[in-house]
Specification:
This protein is mostly beta strands and about 220 residues long. The chain is built from three helices and 15 strands. It has a four-stranded mixed beta sheet, with no helix packed on it. It has a four-stranded antiparallel beta sheet with strand order 2-5-7-6. Strands 12-11-14-15 form a four-stranded antiparallel beta sheet, with no helix packed on it. Strand 9 and strand 10 form a beta hairpin. The longest helix is centred in the first third of the chain and has 15 residues. Keywords: Signal. InterPro entries: Ig_E-set, Secre_tail. It holds the Pfam family Por_Secre_tail.
């Protein structure tokens, strides 16, 4: 009986702490053919980190599965150059103050300026190559208890169903620009996608209990 009780406790604990992915999308200069990032986890070898997936719209997406279990310091490289982006001048020009204050940039303002993703940050994380522009859509609320969005990918529309009354859905592109805002009532909604460009979007779904963000694909 003791062994069975221990197994049940272990199963419940494990189920409640399943690892989640970190999905990071970076906007890059037009014409960029490849993008990867590296950092302290990879000994600062610029050719040693993850390679991004080209979304075909001047953005690349990285999925770290599971999300890092410790704060991650990193920089991006593009086009196979093996040369890191340089954020030192941005820091010197006081463009990175918000990121420094939030702990998302480590810099001495003269010889290094490195990005940081913290374990307390959102699991959907946006960046802009060679810029200190704040990451957008850093939303990690878990208050929306249960919902579904389908089909995903879609060509025409997404169907949203939840187990509680919804109040609003906002759709953002990968640069953080709002492309749709729709007031809701009830537990079901249709999100139209026919006028959207092919690519990745993030839906911020709000209810009376809170909000959550979900990654969508228009094809």
């Amino acid at each position: 009986m003791k062994n069975i009780t221990f197994f049940l406790i272990l199963l419940i604990t494990t189920t409640g702490t399943l690892a989640q992915d970190l999905v990071m999308t970076v906007s890059v200069p037009p014409g960029t053919t490849s993008c990867r990032f590296s950092g302290a986890f990879w000994g600062w070898d610029p050719n040693g980190g993850p390679v991004g997936t080209d979304n075909g719209n001047d953005t690349f997406t990285f999925t770290l599965s599971p999300a890092p279990g410790a704060d991650m310091e990193y920089l991006f490289t593009i086009n196979g150059s093996g040369v890191y982006e340089n954020l030192i001048d941005n820091a010197q020009n006081a463009e990175c103050t918000d990121r420094v204050n939030s702990g998302n940039l480590n810099t001495d303002y003269s010889s290094y300026a490195n990005r940081i993703w913290k374990t307390t940050d959102a699991l959907i994380w946006n960046e802009v190559y060679d810029s200190c522009q704040p990451a957008t859509l850093s939303i990690n609320d878990k208050n929306l208890i249960d919902f579904s969005l389908y089909p995903n990918p879609t060509q025409s529309q997404w169907v949203l169903k939840a187990n509680q009354n919804l109040t609003e859905v906002q759709l953002f592109d990968v640069t953080g620009k709002s492309v749709l805002s729709q007031k809701l009532s009830g537990q079901d909604a249709i999100i139209e996608a026919t006028e959207l460009r092919t690519g990745i979007y993030f839906a911020k779904i709000k209810s009376s209990l809170g909000s959550t963000t979900y990654r969508l694909i228009k094809n």
